[in-house]
User: Fold MarR family transcriptional regulator from Planomonospora alba.
Amino acid sequence: MTTSSEPQAAAERELCGLVNGLAQQIAVHVRECAAVLGLTSAQATALREMTGPMTMRELAERMSCEPSNATFVVDKLEKQGLIERRAHPTDRRAKQLVLTAEGDALRERLLGLLVQDSPLAGLTAQQQRTLQGLLEQAIIRS
Amino acid sequence: MTTSSEPQAAAERELCGLVNGLAQQIAVHVRECAAVLGLTSAQATALREMTGPMTMRELAERMSCEPSNATFVVDKLEKQGLIERRAHPTDRRAKQLVLTAEGDALRERLLGLLVQDSPLAGLTAQQQRTLQGLLEQAIIRS
DNA sequence: GCATCAAGCTTGAAACAGTCAAGCTTGAAA
DNA sequence: TTTCAAGCTTGACTGTTTCAAGCTTGATGC
Assistant:
């Protein structure tokens, strides 16, 4: 049995479960916020990652999915008039994605909703800072 | 603009993004570990939650999904000979899910893989304990 | 200049995930 | 025993995601 001989592994398992639980709660939260604005989860993720003009590939990487998937999601956002595909200024192969005025406004509303009542609201400002530090370290390392 | 007048909100946004990033990394990690064993993410989640015999409903709750979805996933696991639907000892309506010997062995391998190279491996034991405390508080509150 | 290969994006097919409504069997309670 | 609720399954449907294939364009080497 690895259980009794390696308590460290057991602790990591438990922590892994906790992070998974939090991740799931956040996923639900994102879906709910997105639904309020008439978006799906994937669309909300795309909108959230659109911090500025970028190419399809960049967006796909930020969403950690295939470019073909990004194509699908951007299609939907474009149909809703939230995003535009423009010609890339220097690379004629690439598209430059730009949020429209409505897209930008909706993005602001989305970010507001995401913060509100988030699963992290139960932590104090100090605790949030601590958590942020740990997360940054964990993410950078991997 | 809420940005300049509310620095607190900006900090929460950043933290929210970090948690989302970690959640995504973990999702990718789970998928990769599952793929090594010939499983999908949902199948791996089900296997991970099978800490012992339980009903379909219990499993669905642990996976935080609908029972019909659990039916779908258990079907796949059953086809692979990893899990069995038995008659429930006291309630004839319910099924009792039990891992087969192969299912149990695969579960052990999965848990091992999940811990290995997890996005949390970059933290010390002490940091992991701190993180665990914060996550427990965040999850309980919401 | 031109051939070749790689990069960026799209398309179509397919699998997977997830919800919802409807239906069946069974348990529990009036 | 009648009625209602619980457990599970099925089927239809939507959304997500991946993969392979194909097109255009950029970059590299001859």
